[in-house]
Amino acid sequence: MSRIYNFSAGPAMLPVEVLQEAADEMLDYRGCGMSVMEMSHRSKVYETIIQEAQADLRTLLGIPDNYKVLFLQGGASTQFAMIPMNFMKNRKAGYVVTGQWAKKAFAEAKIFGEAVELASSADKTFSYIPDCSDLPITDDMDYVYICENNTIYGTKFKTLPNTKGKNLIADVSSCFLSEPIDVTKYAMLYAGAQKNVGPAGVTICIIREDLITEDVLPQTPTMLRYKIHADNGSMYNTPPAYAIYICGKVFKWLLKTGGLEKRKEVNEEKAKILYDFLDSSELFKGTVEPASRSLMNVPFVTGDSELDAKFIAESKAAGFENLKGHRTVGGMRASIYNAMPVEGVKALVEFMKKFEAENKHA
Ligand SMILES: *Cc1c(COP(=O)(O)O)cnc(C)c1O
């Protein structure tokens, strides 16, 4: 067996231990005589799987009792609509637009009410996080929305916005469980699993209880009401059962390997190796303002699109997969989520050094 280093932004690498355990349990889950894929989500066995996943996630993140954890479907993108449908009671909310995903959420909110752009970094191709210390938030806004880590552009909020007492809602899809956070700073945070915690198909929403009410916008479909899912323990209908099972294994792996403090340490180490190289390189350069750099997604360019293409082709041949930048920005991007080992980043930097030596004077 040979596993390559996969720098995909998502679906992305998962810990080998998790995949191995899932493989071992594939045909016969702990004496049940069937796979988790084949079992009723209402069975005792599955109930234990989903309950343990939730309990382990609560431990990892230190989620207070007054927050609900929901395992939903429809990807992170469905949240772009669910959030305004459930929370835009005054039909007005503020959005900080720092990239493609924030832009999409902002556009979706406009379907339901007045979405106000509080700040944006579109003027410099989303290469920085705007100052959010004094946003034009008004009293009638229902919430303030951010995308905390911008997967495509490689920026991350280092401090949360001053929301002036308004509820903060954050899309944390690409930085979820990459470091410890204070959940109480958020009214809601959510993440599509396929970036940092599991397979595609499940979106994890963590919502302060008092926000989950029946008072939603008229004509909100049943499946798009948080209260329905909260009241039914994420089992109103069939949940993405197998995806939740794998996420549960990832949570256990995180707990076993030192929790989120340790993850932060390792993720900072990995990011430093790559950013230090980019800062010293004469060929490659990072595209993000140093103060806004993401720990998870690292975009870079050579400044020459032909050389970028050559690098992508040669790196792929050398066993470094998915380094091509997002189709909307070009260049390269290395996503170095939790499951990417330090050795993977070191090997990439060695490869980049070699490529630089060979191509510097081309
Ligand atoms: C990938 C991504 C999304 C979209 O996720 P889907 O599950 O494909 O809908 C939304 N937000 C962020 C930050 C992402 O990285």
From TrEMBL:
<dbReference type="InterPro" id="IPR015421">
    <property type="entry name" value="PyrdxlP-dep_Trfase_major"/>
</dbReference>
<dbReference type="Pfam" id="PF00266">
    <property type="entry name" value="Aminotran_5"/>
</dbReference>
<keyword id="KW-0028">Amino-acid biosynthesis</keyword>
<dbReference type="InterPro" id="IPR022278">
    <property type="entry name" value="Pser_aminoTfrase"/>
</dbReference>
<comment type="pathway">
    <text>Amino-acid biosynthesis; L-serine biosynthesis; L-serine from 3-phospho-D-glycerate: step 2/3.</text>
</comment>
<feature type="binding site">
    <location>
        <begin position="76"/>
        <end position="77"/>
    </location>
    <ligand>
        <name>pyridoxal 5'-phosphate</name>
    </ligand>
</feature>
<dbReference type="InterPro" id="IPR015422">
    <property type="entry name" value="PyrdxlP-dep_Trfase_small"/>
</dbReference>
<feature type="binding site">
    <location>
        <position position="42"/>
    </location>
    <ligand>
        <name>L-glutamate</name>
    </ligand>
</feature>
<keyword id="KW-0663">Pyridoxal phosphate</keyword>
<comment type="subunit">
    <text>Homodimer.</text>
</comment>
<keyword id="KW-0032">Aminotransferase</keyword>
<keyword id="KW-0718">Serine biosynthesis</keyword>
<feature type="binding site">
    <location>
        <position position="194"/>
    </location>
    <ligand>
        <name>pyridoxal 5'-phosphate</name>
    </ligand>
</feature>
<feature type="binding site">
    <location>
        <begin position="237"/>
        <end position="238"/>
    </location>
    <ligand>
        <name>pyridoxal 5'-phosphate</name>
    </ligand>
</feature>
<feature type="domain" description="Aminotransferase class V">
    <location>
        <begin position="4"/>
        <end position="348"/>
    </location>
</feature>
<protein>
    <recommendedName>
        <fullName>Phosphoserine aminotransferase</fullName>
        <ecNumber>2.6.1.52</ecNumber>
    </recommendedName>
</protein>
<dbReference type="InterPro" id="IPR015424">
    <property type="entry name" value="PyrdxlP-dep_Trfase"/>
</dbReference>
<dbReference type="GO" id="GO:0006564">
    <property type="term" value="P:L-serine biosynthetic process"/>
</dbReference>
<feature type="binding site">
    <location>
        <position position="151"/>
    </location>
    <ligand>
        <name>pyridoxal 5'-phosphate</name>
    </ligand>
</feature>
<dbReference type="GO" id="GO:0030170">
    <property type="term" value="F:pyridoxal phosphate binding"/>
</dbReference>
<keyword id="KW-0963">Cytoplasm</keyword>
<comment type="similarity">
    <text>Belongs to the class-V pyridoxal-phosphate-dependent aminotransferase family. SerC subfamily.</text>
</comment>
<dbReference type="GO" id="GO:0005737">
    <property type="term" value="C:cytoplasm"/>
</dbReference>
<keyword id="KW-0808">Transferase</keyword>
<comment type="function">
    <text>Catalyzes the reversible conversion of 3-phosphohydroxypyruvate to phosphoserine and of 3-hydroxy-2-oxo-4-phosphonooxybutanoate to phosphohydroxythreonine.</text>
</comment>
<feature type="binding site">
    <location>
        <position position="171"/>
    </location>
    <ligand>
        <name>pyridoxal 5'-phosphate</name>
    </ligand>
</feature>
<feature type="modified residue" description="N6-(pyridoxal phosphate)lysine">
    <location>
        <position position="195"/>
    </location>
</feature>
<feature type="binding site">
    <location>
        <position position="101"/>
    </location>
    <ligand>
        <name>pyridoxal 5'-phosphate</name>
    </ligand>
</feature>
<dbReference type="GO" id="GO:0004648">
    <property type="term" value="F:O-phospho-L-serine:2-oxoglutarate aminotransferase activity"/>
</dbReference>
<dbReference type="InterPro" id="IPR000192">
    <property type="entry name" value="Aminotrans_V_dom"/>
</dbReference>
